[in-house]
Amino acid sequence: MNPLEKEKAKAEKESACYAYCTDTAFDLFNKKEFAKAAVFLENAARSSRELEKIKMKISKQCADNKWFEIKQMEGQLVVDKWMSEMRKKA
């Protein structure tokens, strides 16, 4: 599994955790169990922060991958130009 897939798997787990915590908090709030609801809301907030970190990590990885691809293409262009010039001289 590549790093991007690992981050996506983490995001799915955190998303499920967030949904569970918010649903449970809502149910507890309706039962007037406010202290318990607050704990679940804090856990939902933690999941939300983790999801934000994962999103940033995925964005950075995608940008890094694109940058690498661009640099490879630039390098290939230099090699192609050099080869073309060498063929003209031959």
Class inferred from helices and paired strands: mainly alpha
Secondary-structure element string: HH
Uncertain regions: pLDDT < 50 for 5+ in a row? none
Share of helix among residues? over 70%
Mean pLDDT: 90
Largest sheet: none
Please report the number of helical segments: 2
How many structurally independent domains?
1
Distance between the termini: 48 Å
- Cα Rg: 25 Å
Q: Compute the number of strand runs.
A: 0
Shape: rod-shaped
Provide the β-strand percentage band: under 5%
Helices and strands in order:
Blueprint lengths: L2 H28 L3 H56 L1
Question: What does this protein structure show overall?
Answer:
There is one protein chain. About 95% of the residues lie in helices and about 0% in strands. With about 90 residues, it is an all-alpha fold. The protein has one domain (about 5-90). The longest helix is centred in the C-terminal third of the chain and has 56 residues, at about 35-90.
Attribute tags:
90 residues, mainly alpha
What's this model, at a glance?
The protein is mainly α and 90 residues long.
